[in-house]
Amino acid sequence: MLIRRDTLEAIRDGSVTLAFRRWARPRLRVGTRMRTLVGLVEVVALDRVDDLTDAEARAAGEADRAAVLARLRRREPESLYRIELRYAGEDPRVALRDDVTPGELTALAQRLDAIDARSPRGAWTWTVLELIDRRPATLAADLAAQLGRERRSFKADVRRLKELGLTESLERGYRLSPRGKALLAFNAAARPPREPPRGHRAARARRRRPPP
Questions:
Q1: Does 157 have pLDDT greater than 90?
Q2: How many helices (H) and strands (E) does the chain have?
């Protein structure tokens, strides 16, 4: 469920408590906690409704009932759902981003190596971390293209790194967290340099090629 940044801020401060969506079937469950840019947002209640009031529209951050229905008109005739939301605290991954010990760095490096060893397409974790470090705030589609990958699967991989507290999502693209930067520095000191991604190798070869 996509929620605008300004609406998320309003959910956090309590001024927005509802959302309305048109769906063919429910896409959320009561009790679901969504990880968002401002922290965790919990689904408190989810009901299929026939209509809404102006007061409910204002609780959803809209001017009135008509504004909500106009925004959702393109999804007609799908069912209208009323979703009660509340701010449920900070994303627990935030705490992971900052605090790290040498022992944790060793364990994280081993964790990434294990992910790579199980990956059917080969190693990718360190390559993606290094690419984000070189190109922060770059669109996922551009990063994926640099690696010759499809955008959706690339974003899924970045989410796996985010679960470990290694990356942070920005309005545009990503950046490494302090934990991610510490892990890259630890890895660089402990291991030989890695080959850059394919796009960088080709560019480097072109720069080295002597003129005709």
A1: yes
A2: 10, 6
DSSP state of 60: T
Domain segments of the chain as ranges = 5-90, 93-208
Hey, what's the torsion of the CAs at 195, 198, 202, 208, to 10 degrees? Answer: -10
Question: Hey, how many other C-beta atoms are within 10 angstroms of the C-beta on 103?
Answer: 8
Q: What is the pTM of this model?
A: 0.58
- Distance, in Å, from the CA atom of 156 to the CA atom of 150, rounded to the nearest integer, reads 10
Which ranges constitute the DSSP H helices of the chain? Answer: 5-13, 54-59, 65-71, 92-98, 102-118, 125-134, 140-146, 151-163, 178-190, 198-208
CB 129 within 8 A of CB 188: no
> Please, what is the Cα angle at 57 between 35 and 26, to 5 degrees?
50
**Per-residue pLDDT at 195:** 54
Residues 6+ apart with CB under 8 A from 203: none
> Cβ(148)–Cβ(131) under 8 Å?
no
Residue 143 is predicted with a pLDDT of 97
Which candidate, 100, 131, 128, places its Cα nearest to that of 115? 128
**Percentage of residues of the chain with pLDDT beyond 90:** 71
More confident residue, 94 or 169: 169
Take residue 14 and report the two structure tokens written for it.
């309590």
CATH topology of domain 93-208: Arc Repressor Mutant, subunit A (1.10.10)
Which numeric CATH code is attached to 5-90?
Answer: 2.30.130
